[in-house]
Design goal:
cell outer membrane, 430 residues, 5 helices, mainly beta, 55% strand, transmembrane beta strand, OMPP1/FadL/TodX, transmembrane, elongated, 20 strands, Porin
């Protein structure tokens, strides 16, 4: 009984940092180009995800189809103690393996009994982890690869309570899949352990958008998504196990407790002149919910891995400029993320640290009702000296690039609504 549990523990312990700090940037092209600072300046169907209240400011049918490429890199350098112990090689890098998350949103906006309303649905991957180290890197017994995806579906709506004030709400469905593998030192031979689990949870979204002064293009926006507690189930398997250790490394069923954290975004938008919109936003990510990672084998024993993560605090800023070129809009932004990780608990399973990021992008209306948007986002992480890490020590330097492109289609339906009733900083002069 004890031996299979020991084998499961060897596989589970490396994911110490796997279940924290795994938020993915909002890769909808317009939002990404503004460093995701536009919670108070939504102007299309992507509001389904970022601020459902803004759906009540749309008119007719809106459709957004987008895709992204996320490229995460991490470089490791051995500590002085590791070099003195003869660790070889003394430096390693993740090999590039891009992922391509999609974003799909659709909405319809109109009016009923003198009040604007909007409804919409959407799908994206708001969180995950993609780590691919080489099989022979010195930390392979901690981790080789991690492939986690948190899929999310949204059904949202917005309603204009009074002129200038819109309220929004929605339901959120999370579905998570995760696969990880690592090498296992069986002394006489090198083996591999693999863990695959999946599970789901329901959550909800609450939001508002408020333009307090009728003729001043200044808007306040807020969006809150509640946490989603998931129970992932799957299997742990071991490969290339010596016959003498077959009982120690027994395959078994596994459950894993995983929470998608609470997210709060509060932002401002101000149109300085008709051609220039400025945005600012504070984002709170409640990663302190990860007190432990819990893995339970079907042998009846629970393994709890202590956590040491704090909450994430992000400050974002963006600018959108309607250029003199007809149909062309330019965008840029930057952000600072304080990071949720602790260097003493840093793990190569998921690169995470304080970071600065910059973004640029553009949109072009090439036909009536049609536009194409593109964005580039570059995240530069602080160097982490994880000499005393309880996982695999070392000095880590991480970076990430995100490329995004999308097409949007807008079709007015029914009589045109009065702009005075739905104006915000995003659309006041449109």
């Amino acid at each position: 009984m004890r031996k299979p549990i020991t084998a499961l523990a060897l596989l589970a312990l490396p994911v110490l940092a796997l279940a924290s700090g795994y938020s993915v940037p909002n890769y909808n092209p317009r939002d990404l180009a503004l460093a995701d600072s536009a919670v108070a300046a939504q102007d299309g169907a992507a509001a389904v995800y970022r601020n459902p209240a803004a759906l009540a400011g749309l008119e007719g049918v809106d459709l957004v189809l987008g895709g992204s490429l996320i490229d995460l890199r991490s470089d490791w350098t051995a500590t002085a103690a590791q070099q003195a112990a003869g660790v070889s090689p003394t430096a390693a890098s993740m090999y590039p393996k891009a992922v391509f998350p999609p974003g799909i949103y659709a909405s319809y906006g109109g009016a009923i009994a003198g009040h604007r309303f909007g409804v919409g649905a959407g799908f994206n991957i708001p969180a995950g982890g993609n780590v691919y180290w080489r099989n022979d890197w010195p930390g392979s017994t901690d981790i080789i690869s991690v492939n986690r995806k948190v899929y999310a579906g949204y059904l949202s709506g917005g309603f204009q309570l009074v002129p200038g004030l819109k309220l929004g709400a929605g339901v959120v469905y999370y579905r998570t899949t995760e696969l990880l593998d690592r090498s296992v030192d069986f002394i006489s031979t090198q083996g591999y352990g693999k863990l695959g689990t999946s599970g789901d949870a329901w959550s909800y979204d609450l939001s508002f958008e408020w333009t307090p002064l009728r003729d001043v293009p200044f808007t306040i926006g807020l969006d809150y998504k509640h946490k989603g507690d998931q129970k992932l189930t799957g299997n742990a398997t071991f490969l290339n196990v010596p016959p003498a250790l077959a009982g120690q490394a027994a395959d078994q069923a596994v459950t894993h407790e995983l929470t998608v954290p609470n997210y709060l975004n509060v932002g401002l938008a101000y149109r300085v002149v008709p051609q220039l919109l400025l945005t600012g936003q504070y984002s709170f990510e409640r990663y302190v919910v990860y007190r432990t990672d819990t893995f339970q084998g079907n042998q009846g024993v629970t393994i709890e891995v202590p956590r040491s993560w704090g909450n994430g605090h992000l400050f974002r800023f963006g600018a959108e400029w309607t250029t003199p070129v007809q149909g062309l809009t330019a965008r840029a932004g930057f952000l600072h993320d304080s990071g949720a990780s602790d260097a003493n608990h840093y793990s190569p399973t998921l690169p995470d640290a304080s970071l600065w990021a910059v973004s640029v992008g553009a949109g072009y209306a090439f036909l009536p009702g049609w536009s194409v948007d593109a964005a580039f986002f570059r995240a530069m992480y602080d160097t982490v000296d994880a000499t005393n890490s309880v996982s695999f020590p070392g000095v880590y330097k991480d970076s990430a690039n995100v490329y995004s492109i999308g097409v949007s289609w807008h079709v007015p339906v029914g009589p045109k609504l009065a702009q005075d009733d739905g104006r915000t900083a995003a659309n006041l002069f449109r």
